[in-house]
Amino acid sequence: MQKKALIIDDTKNIRLLLAKCLELDGWEVASARDGKEGLDMIYSQQYDLIFLDIKLPEISGTEILRRMRSSGIQVPVIVITAYPTIKNAVEGVMQKKALIIDDTKNIRLLLAKCLELDGWEVSSARDGKEGLDMIYGQQYDLIFLDIKLPEISGTEILRRIRSSGILVPVIVITAYPTIKNAVDCTRLGVVSYLQKPFTAERLRMVLKDLNIAGSQDERSDLKTSVERALLDNDTARAGRLLREALAEDPSDGSIYMMLSQVHAAMGDAENAEKFLKVYEIFKIGG
Fold it and tell me: What is the pLDDT of residues 109-123, one digit of tens each?
């Protein structure tokens, strides 16, 4: 009897390559291009093997794994990942999940970017009803919650989740830091506050004070540090980090690419082009 494999990956070439190899070995192959489609296929029929990308649109690979296992589906899974080491692959699977509920798009984007740089898997909702549905639909390790929301207010969301026994830590986002709101939210178990407008640095300070990390080990690699500096509009710090790295290893071509990006952010087109050309030389030589 022919065995059945499912490939869930958003990269077409990966799906085609895996399917070709498996079919040559006698497998019957199905494929999905995003997490939602893949999960629906898993629930609708049985497979003998699943190839699962971690980073997927709609529903992440880690969330698919959690839902499968909680439903008692024990089919073998081979994870497809761009993580370069076993250690990082494990961190990816152990990634903590944050939910952002805010009706301001720029707030959602800023929070998501900062959290992703710190290793979090991030979901977001633009109103109270959508946010509450997401909280009831899956587990999160941290929630960022705006007080003033369409559909259902942030304080009402807090009341409902606490009365349902959901004790996930909540950080309140507010432009209205009144004593009444502070008292009400504190009674409902809010762990901290972010007052609008806030900076990426302020967010990191809040997370540090709470000793909350996105994964088991902080991502302290050079690229992440430079991205954080650029997010803070601190091009001087980004440049300093890269110059120090260049002094230690001038043969690392990626440093020249990042230097090009930093100079472009500074409006220095001439040096941005110069470092880009150096990077291209390393790329050709590699």
Answer: 888 888 887 778 899
